[in-house]
Specification:
Elements lengths: L1 H13 L15 E7 L1 H4 L3 H12 L5 E7 L5 H6 L1 H5 L6 E6 L14 H24 L5 E6 L18 H19 L2 E4 L1 H12 L17 H14 L8 E6 L4 E6 L1 E8 L3 E8 L28 H5 L2 E6 L4 E6 L2 E7 H6 L1 E2 L7 H34 L10 H10 L4 H5 L1 H7 L2 H21 L5 E7 L1
Parallel strand pairs: 1-2, 1-3, 3-4, 4-5, 6-10
Antiparallel strand pairs: 6-7, 8-9, 9-14, 10-13, 11-12, 11-14
Helix pairs in contact: 3-9, 3-12, 6-7, 12-16
Pfam families: Lipase_GDSL_2
Protein name: SGNH hydrolase-type esterase domain-containing protein
Keywords: Signal
């Protein structure tokens, strides 16, 4: 079943030649900012993209920053461009909106088409102001992202679908695409490919969706699909972690891509050689982390060919006879036949290799960084959604606390952030959080440097 859906998806995505490289890859010293709503604010897709760069380009200096705020529409984003987005000094600015802009419950009301027209027009008018601001930016590359979809088709108990909401979202995607074309900006749509994946799997499993339990917020598998689509648009499909090919019978290196091989030695029981890759395998989290998550990042592999296209660390050994154990740095990794070694073993699919374990450290450090960055996003929500309309943006004084407490009992979202704001209002606390993230990033930079590994094949 899993291979069936992946096969169809490969054909669907492969049919679009623009996916070869729609979006330029990030370069040295880029500061990449993702502006969006709650899907960006509480989402992982940008963190998963950064994890790819951390492991694939370990010496690259790159910063990726979250500028999402839950509930935002394009008009809300417009109001915080200077203080929350441009202030981050982006060299690349991704912008996505549409889920909140298109509205919600009125789609099941008496005049859904009129409502959709009004919401799309409102969003377009707000975006035209944003577009003008973007045109004035110097040294910033603009990338517009069509929103992940609202899933109208998934069967969710006690959750009635909003009919034709996603059609309104696609109209927003259309004017984003047109703007990108007119301004010679870059563009990528998440909506149609994610909808296509969900529809295909729903033929066999009507409860499947990439859009989460509420039809709106992708679960972690959905965010990994988004990361995959973005990385594919950057042209990384087909780029391997490394590839090593050896003719054991002649002790000869046939190929060493993105790695160095040396000291091939024939022993009494097999062969050994030194392997130093320029990258690490991409680690995939098997835990459904975070509030409300039911699926893990790893679950995305059931519906997209990420491993086949972007996570290949191939070991090919020809000229063997019989079965062999594979050891890396003295640790047994597994046993394969000569035919399997000749075909190739994808080491990136094995979580017990030393290099995969090294990459796991980076994954967990990056997750800790993401958790701390989320505190800053909750603080931004309080500042821009609550204080800014009241003329108290960045006041962070006794008056701000008093106003906060006047409203918190009537607003559950506000009440949930009371403890965080009582800390974040002090600059020293925010500086300490930033320092924690800086230390994590320094540690990631240190941990991500690949090491020379001793690979041994021992006749079984």
């Amino acid at each position: 079943m899993r291979r069936f859906f992946i096969g169809i998806l490969v054909l669907a995505l492969g049919a679009n030649p623009l996916l070869a490289q729609q979006i330029a890859p990030f370069k040295e010293n880029d500061r990449v900012v993702f502006l969006g709503n709650s899907i960006t604010d509480g989402g992982h897709y940008h963190a998963y993209v950064w994890l790819y760069y951390m492991t694939r380009f370990p010496t690259m200096n790159l910063t990726i920053l979250n500028a999402g705020i839950g509930g935002d529409r394009v008009g809300d984003m417009l109001k915080r461009l200077d203080g929350d987005v441009f202030s981050k000094q982006p060299t690349v600015l991704f912008t996505t909106f549409g889920m909140n802009d298109s509205g919600y419950f009125e789609y099941n009301g008496s005049e859904p088409e009129k409502f959709a027209d009004e919401k799309v027009k409102e969003s377009h008018n707000g975006y035209k102001q944003m577009e003008e601001r973007y045109k004035g930016l110097v040294g910033t590359r603009i990338v517009l992202l069509g929103s992940s979809p609202y899933d109208e088709d998934v069967v969710i108990p006690d959750n009635t679908s909003l009919k034709n909401k996603n059609k309104a979202m696609l109209r927003i995607v259309d004017f984003q695409r047109a703007s990108a074309t007119a301004n010679k900006w870059e563009f990528l749509d998440f909506n149609e490919p994610m909808t296509a994946i969900s529809k295909r799997v729903q033929q066999e499993d009507p409860s499947f969706t990439l859009s989460g339990n509420d039809r709106v917020h992708p679960d972690l598998d959905g965010h990994m699909v988004m990361a995959y689509l973005l990385l594919k648009a950057q042209g990384f499909s087909g780029q391997k972690v490394a590839e090593m090919e050896i003719d054991a019978s002649n002790q000869k290196i046939i190929n060493a891509s993105n790695c160095n091989l040396s000291d091939i030695v024939k022993t009494g029981t097999g062969w050994s050689f030194d392997y130093h890759a320029n990258a690490l395998p991409y680690p995939l989290d098997t835990v459904a982390r975070g509030w409300g998550s039911k699926k893990s990042q790893f679950d995305a592999l059931a519906v997209v060919p990420f491993m086949e296209e972007m996570n290949q660390e191939l070991l090919i050994v020809k000229g063997l006879k019989g079965n062999y154990k594979l050891l890396i740095d003295g640790e047994e990794i597994g046993k394969w036949s000569a035919a399997e070694f000749a075909k190739g073993i994808n080491l990136a699919a094995l979580d017990n290799t030393p290099q995969y374990q090294q990459a796991l450290r980076i994954m967990h450090l990056n997750e800790e960084r993401w958790e701390i960055e989320r505190r800053f996003r909750d603080y931004a929500w309080v500042q821009y959604n609550f204080f800014q309309p009241k003329g108290l943006l960045d006041a962070n004084n006794r008056r701000a606390i008093e106003v906060f407490d006047q409203f918190k009992e009537k607003d559950g979202w506000l009440r949930a952030k009371r403890d965080l704001y009582s800390k974040a209002m002090f600059p020293e606390v925010r500086q300490a959080w930033q320092h924690e993230m800086d230390v994590l990033l320094q540690t990631i930079k240190h941990v991500s440097i690949p090491k020379t590994r001793k690979i041994s094949l021992v006749r079984n």
